[in-house]
Amino acid sequence: MCGNNMSAPLPAIVPAARKATAAVIFLHGLGDTGHGWSEALAGIKSPHVKYICPHAPVMPVSLNMNMAMPSWFDIIGLSPDAKEDEAGIKQAAENVKALIDQEVKNGIPSNRIILGGFSQGGALSLYTALTTHQKLAGVVALSCWLPLHASFPQGPISGVNKEIAVLQCHGDSDPLVPLTFGSLTVGKLQSMINPANITFRTYSGMMHSSCIEEMMDVKQFIDKQLPPVD
């Protein structure tokens, strides 16, 4: 495992057109790489924002008969009560927190960073935002769920992100991560953070993918949470 993390290729980056005063860290889904999402984000970029799309390490995935593929953590099953890779999820969240720390060192404060992701990457971005001590500008959670949801306390979380803005999006025809997962997740989030800061959007006919309408909603959210400062 250690070897994988060390040898994971450098993230795909869409640099800011001028001095970067904000950043979006976006995590791809299972079996993918950061390249596709860096292209999608390049299509909605704002000049002062840097977009960072890391690549997950390659590891065997139980759900796919132990075939090795890019994955942030192991996925054992897709039902709401399936066993979860707790150690892997927590380690992956630490790796994302290290990415955030790196951007802070680069001069972008954490409250000018949005964490986002699609599917498994969206799940990891939600879990990381709810467990980190770094104050973030927001979370973009596309076609995903909240991992280890039973490990969170009932009721509001304390911590720096209890008022965080969340954009959660889901296709109503998703065969892989059904819309019910998205609805259960938004219900759980509303009990943990300020419900007024959560936006849940669904897209008619969209499967386990993205669409132009969704990307426009993502752009609007990013522009609202990360306005230019200079």
Automatic annotation (TrEMBL):
Catalytic activity: a 1-(9Z-octadecenoyl)-2-acyl-sn-glycero-3-phosphocholine + H2O = a 2-acyl-sn-glycero-3-phosphocholine + (9Z)-octadecenoate + H(+); S-hexadecanoyl-L-cysteinyl-[protein] + H2O = L-cysteinyl-[protein] + hexadecanoate + H(+); 1-hexadecanoyl-sn-glycero-3-phosphocholine + H2O = sn-glycerol 3-phosphocholine + hexadecanoate + H(+)
Coiled-coil residue windows: none
InterPro entries noted in UniProt: AB_hydrolase_fold, LYPA1-2/EST-like, PLipase/COase/thioEstase
Stretches assigned to the Phospholipase/carboxylesterase/thioesterase domain: 11-224
Keywords: Acetylation, Cell membrane, Cytoplasm, Endoplasmic reticulum, Fatty acid metabolism, Hydrolase, Lipid metabolism, Membrane, Nucleus
Residues annotated as transmembrane: none
E.C. code: 3.1.2.22
GO molecular function (one): carboxylic ester hydrolase activity
Highest taxon of source: Eukaryota
Keyword Nucleus: yes
Location(s) in or outside the cell: Cell membrane; Cytoplasm; Endoplasmic reticulum; Nucleus membrane
GO biological process: fatty acid metabolic process
Database matches in SUPFAM superfamilies: alpha/beta-Hydrolases
GO cellular component: endoplasmic reticulum; nuclear membrane; plasma membrane
Family (UniProt): Belongs to the AB hydrolase superfamily. AB hydrolase 2 family.
Quaternary structure note: Homodimer.
Biological role: Acts as an acyl-protein thioesterase. Hydrolyzes fatty acids from S-acylated cysteine residues in proteins such as trimeric G alpha proteins or HRAS. Acts as a palmitoyl thioesterase that catalyzes depalmitoylation of proteins, such as ADRB2, KCNMA1 and SQSTM1. Acts as a negative regulator of autophagy by mediating palmitoylation of SQSTM1, decreasing affinity between SQSTM1 and ATG8 proteins and recruitment of ubiquitinated cargo proteins to autophagosomes. Acts as a lysophospholipase and hydrolyzes lysophosphatidylcholine (lyso-PC).
Protein name: Acyl-protein thioesterase 1
Organism: Bucco capensis
